[in-house]
Design goal:
This protein is an alpha/beta fold. Helix content is about 40%, strand content about 15%. It is built from 13 helices and eleven strands. A six-stranded parallel β-sheet has the order 2-1-3-4-5-6, with helices on both faces. Strands 9-8-7-10-11 form a five-stranded parallel β-sheet, sandwiched between helices.
Length: about 350
């Protein structure tokens, strides 16, 4: 069996599925940029700002033009390398909204393997209604991380019987202790800390507008980590894959002589799982990779002391209040059901 999978920053889950399936399943990864760039040749850039923008009635002709192009792209892939299903990590992306029709025209199902691990109360309450109105679920079958995620997608308009709770494929790594590295591959000697960096407007209601909502929090965190480096710790900074490279230049400047000796920059595209289990502690704010560290049973420091974080309340994921029972629910075996 062979699946065509849209790779959108969930390579760890794709690799985990490859390992679990062995020779019984071949996964052919297709970069999401291919479809996104083609869509933006036809559609205005505003479609990337939200669900409502793509759904505007006046864009119907452009949507149909792109749907025809998408069908041609998938037909070419199918002709050269036939596949038994098309898999994407979300069907709310504007450039895959017409993918179900294209997949069905080729005689294959359209599957969604949701890559996210959790959502905030605000997202559960508000965003589900937006999805139901502007981008209702289209998958023939959807896999999700937890019962909570399933309830979200049902609220958003999905048919409950089409959703299967599987856990995240990448979580299987955390139950295989034999695969855990003994140490992080940066520097020598001394304890290590992994910092999951983020853009200064990430996780904020004004995200994308350039507002430095978390600048004070980020500077305080960075200052504390540099102090640890001066005390002999190895500090690993892993930027978000979509984060601006400006932060890397700032770290290099502020670390000074510690750069490359006690402070190290991790490739944004690197698999974070081996780093999480090898580091002595993981530090982060709203990155869902914190849940990976919690599932792995590793020490976690959540930097939720910012006043802005308190002010936004249920718009943010309440990592500080998450119980061991809630985390253990995410460890269910992964099995991509078709």
């Amino acid at each position: 069996m062979r699946f065509l999978v849209l790779e959108h920053h969930f390579g760890q889950d794709i690799d985990a599925l490859r390992q679990a399936a062995g020779d019984s399943l071949e996964l052919d990864a297709m970069p999401y940029e291919l479809l996104r760039s083609e869509a933006l040749r036809i559609l205005p850039e505003e479609v990337g700002t939200g669900l409502e923008a793509f759904a505007k009635p006046e864009l119907e002709h452009a949507r149909r033009r792109y749907a025809a192009i998408l069908l041609e792209i998938l037909e070419d892939r199918f002709t050269s390398s036939p596949f038994d299903a098309l898999v994407v990590p979300s069907d709310t992306f504007f450039y895959v909204r017409s993918a179900p029709e294209a997949a069905h025209a080729l005689g294959v199902p359209f599957l969604v393997a949701q890559k996210e691990t959790t959502i905030s109360e605000h997202t559960m309450r508000e965003h589900a209604g937006q999805i139901r109105r502007f981008a209702p679920p289209l998958a023939d079958r959807m896999t999700v991380c937890s019962e909570r995620h399933k309830s979200f997608w049902v609220r958003a308009g999905a048919v409950a019987e089409r959703i299967v709770v599987t856990g995240q494929p990448r979580f299987g790594f955390y139950s295989d202790l034999s695969a855990w590295p003994a140490d992080v591959p940066f520097g020598e000697g001394g304890p290590s800390v992994l910092f999951l960096s983020y853009a200064l407007d990430a996780y904020h209601p004004g995200e994308g507008g350039g507002e430095s909502a978390w600048s004070a929090l980020h500077m305080q965190t960075e200052g504390g980590l540099l102090e640890l480096a001066r005390r002999g710790w190895r500090v690993l900074v892993k930027p978000h894959p979509q984060q601006s490279p400006d932060s890397q230049r700032r770290w290099r400047r502020n670390a000074g002589e510690l750069w490359g000796r006690r402070v190290f920059m991790v490739d944004p595209q690197a698999d974070v799982r081996p780093l999480i289990v090898a580091a002595d502690v993981t530090v982060g704010f709203q990155s869902t990779a914190l849940l990976d560290a919690m599932v792995a049973g590793r020490p976690v420091l959540y930097t939720g002391w910012d006043r802005g974080a308190t002010a936004h309340g249920d718009r943010l994921i309440p990592f500080e209040g998450r119980s061991e029972e809630q985390t253990s629910e995410l460890q269910s075996p992964c099995n991509l059901v078709c």
